[in-house]
Amino acid sequence: MLAASDLAPSCEVSWFSALCDDDYEFLGVPDVALRSSWDHCRNIVLGAEKGGFDRVLLPSGYSLGLDTIAFAGGMAPMLRRLKLLAAIRCGEVWAPQQARQIATLDQMSEGRLDINIISSDLPGETLESAPRYRRTLEYMNILRSLLNGNSVDVDGEFYKFSVAAPRLQGYGGRSPLFYFGGLSEAARDTAAAAADVYLMWPDTLDQVQNVVGDMRARAARYGRTLKFGYRVHVIVRDTEIEARAAASRLVSRLDASTGKSIRNRSLDAATAGVLRQGELRDHADSDGYVEDNLWTGIGRARSGCGAALVGTPDQILAKLRTYQDLGMEAFILSGYPHQSECDLFARHVLPHLNHAPLSRFD
User: Fold this and answer.
1) What is the CATH number of the domain that holds 182?
2) For the residues of 199-250, what is the DSSP string, one character each?
3) CB within 8 A of 275, min separation 6: which ones?
4) Distance (Å, rounded) from C-alpha 356 to C-alpha 290?
5) 244 vs 1: CA distance, rounded Å
6) What is the pTM of this model?
7) What tens digit of pLDDT does each residue of 53-89 get?
């Protein structure tokens, strides 16, 4: 095993709870036992806390699985240490009401809540990227002001209203951190202007380095700095042969039409980030690897994060540390099935990472 964790820089390590019917033994083959339910998704979260993860991402979808905010409210009193990263889609809830929901959850979790901002079309609409991100930026600024305990008087392109400072703010009077991702020009500028943590989906090392450099420069133009996070799946086994075999097994029952249907069912199926995941698959070798230990087969049946780190504990640890060298301070991981892969990573890799959650109070 590689060097002791206390010799490496600290990073946040999070797991994922499959609220959106995204849990499989074989990708594309539904399994009643793995369908999103209160019991199943709760057990994933409790397993992540027991395993020692810092945080868990609660994703958001419209027609699939469980409601994110309701689920977070049910989980908050059950947790003693684990932080929640709850995804919201800007515009589906009136901003002052969304702020009140978030503030309530933040109090329930005693400050162990942050928000994954998603800029997507709403059901029944199609808005071009640039105006959609302008709307998202207005929404983010409103939320942050209210969660910091400030009144809002906005006369924007999309929102026009005045509300007094709320009685209930974020825990400790501070807004939760905003995690945010997107590769388009409009997305990058929105993140530079208003995000706390810029999230990336899997990519080649040179492209990760390029995006980090670009985002640092954009944030500096706004007089800001960003932290960086990396969202990726993992498949860790004792040997590389076993890990690659597990990856192959995962897609062994997937047919092309089913995969395409799964990829296209998301409202975000045509974003720049999703298109980039497709490009990675196109440039991968015959086994789906686009560079050492980065396997793109996951994206054959997933519209978003579409690649996995595949290898031994040493190989996975080395890859994560390479990402840290490029600027990553947070990792959001997942695997299939989520409970068993969570346990494998927690036992074989997590103890060797020097990890701690990011905090709004730093």
Assistant:
1) 3.20.20.30
2) EE----HHHHHHHHHHHHHHHHHTT---EEEEEEEEEE-SSHHHHHHHHHHH
3) none
4) 30
5) 20
6) 0.94
7) 999 999 998 777 899 999 999 999 999 999 999 999 9
317 located within any domain: no
- Does residue 16 lie within any of the structural domains? yes
Residue 337 has a CB neighbour count (10 Å cut-off) of: 18
| Beta bridge partners of residue 15, listed in sequence order | 56
Residue listed under structure tokens 């800001």:
224
* Number of Cβ atoms within 10 Å of the Cβ of 297: 25
Residue with tokens 């640039």, as numbered in its chain: 130
Alpha carbon distance 223, 50 (integer Å)? 39
300 Cβ partners below 8 Å, 6+ apart?
Answer: 27, 251, 254, 256, 259, 263, 281, 306
The predicted structure's pLDDT at residue 61: 81
CA distance linking residue 250 with residue 17, whole number of Å = 18
Domain count across the chain: 1
Return the DSSP state at 56.
Answer: E
Q: Report DSSP state, residue 268.
A: T
Residue 300: what residue type? Answer: R
Task: Identify whether 74 is part of a domain.
Answer: yes
Q: Of 202, 170, 159, 181, which is closest to residue 322 (Cα–Cα)?
A: 202
| 127: its two tokens | 């808005």
